[in-house]
Amino acid sequence: MRSKAYNQKKIVIASHNKGKITEIKDLLKPLKIEILSTDNFNLKEPVENGSSFEENALIKSSYVSKLTGIPSLSDDSGICFSDLNNEPGIYSARWAGKAKNFNLAMIKINDSIRKIKKPSYDCFFVCALSLCWPDGSNVTVSGKIDGKFTWPPRGDYGFGYDPIFKPMEYDDTFAEMDPKLKHSISHRAIAFKKLINLCFPSLKH
Q1: HEC states along 88-107?
Q2: What pLDDT digit, counting tens, does each position of 157-178 carry?
Q3: ∠ CA(18), CA(40), CA(103), 5° rounding?
Q4: φ and ψ at residue 133, rounded to 5 degrees
Q5: Buried b (16+ CB within 10 A) or exposed e, 122-161
Q6: Which of the residues 75, 76, 83, 162 is marked catalytic?
Q7: What backbone phi and psi angles, to 5 degrees, belong to 12?
């Protein structure tokens, strides 16, 4: 990792996930720069064959930055359940299948946990953010938030596994929370604060 202040006028979000793009755009608003996504360049997704969230995030950011010639910010995130040996983890999106059907993925998780004797229901979200420049230099950080599995799914906000995740010390799931609250406490927000400290010193509060 090479720490480097960000002073560009554009940034590309290396994602096709509309939910992630929306959240990242909200986090990037204070920068007052042009925010693009891979959809603007009709890029295919790279093969994510890393062994960690951080490795997969860097794969995506370096791939997009190299092809566009613009600094790229990527996100690799997922949910881990203690009762399932921290699965699905880096395979969270794959559990939803090619159709990205997270309803089926959540049912699969519930069915798996129900087979566990005396489950703890402990779980956590992880987000790795990687900011990569065309010259290959990058800053990659991660954030984590602990919570509890809840069933049935609750809430209409958010995306992915948000309806079954209740962060510690809160009664609502991520999908029930006001988006502004979620964006202020989430794993993505925690990772973004680290990124600000390293690359956006002018935004420090």
Answers
A1: EHHHCCHHHCCCCCHHHHHH
A2: 989 999 999 999 999 999 999 9
A3: 20
A4: -95, 160
A5: ebbbbbbbbbbbeeeebbbbbbebebbbbeebbbebbbbb
A6: 76
A7: -110, 125
Whether the Cβ atoms of residue 192 and residue 205 lie closer than 8 Å to each other:
no
Tokens read off for 132: 């990569």
Question: So what's the pLDDT on residue 5?
Answer: 59
Nearest 5 degrees, angle CA 160-CA 166-CA 168? 135
146 is catalytic: no
DSSP class of 15: -
Indicate the pairing of strand 87-88 with strand 122-132: unpaired
For residue 184 the two structure tokens come to 């202020």
Residue 6 near residue 145, CB atoms below 8 Å: no
Q: What is the CA radius of gyration of the chain?
A: 17
Q: What is the mean pLDDT of residues 120-148?
A: 96
Which of 142, 147, 154, 149 minimizes the C-alpha distance to 191? 142
**Which one-letter amino acid corresponds to residue 25?**
K
> What's the sign of the alpha-carbon dihedral 142, 62, 21, 96?
negative
Task: Give domain 10-203's CATH number out of 3.90.950.10, 3.40.50.2000, 3.30.70.60, 3.40.309.10.
Answer: 3.90.950.10
Q: What residue spans define the domains of the chain?
A: 10-203
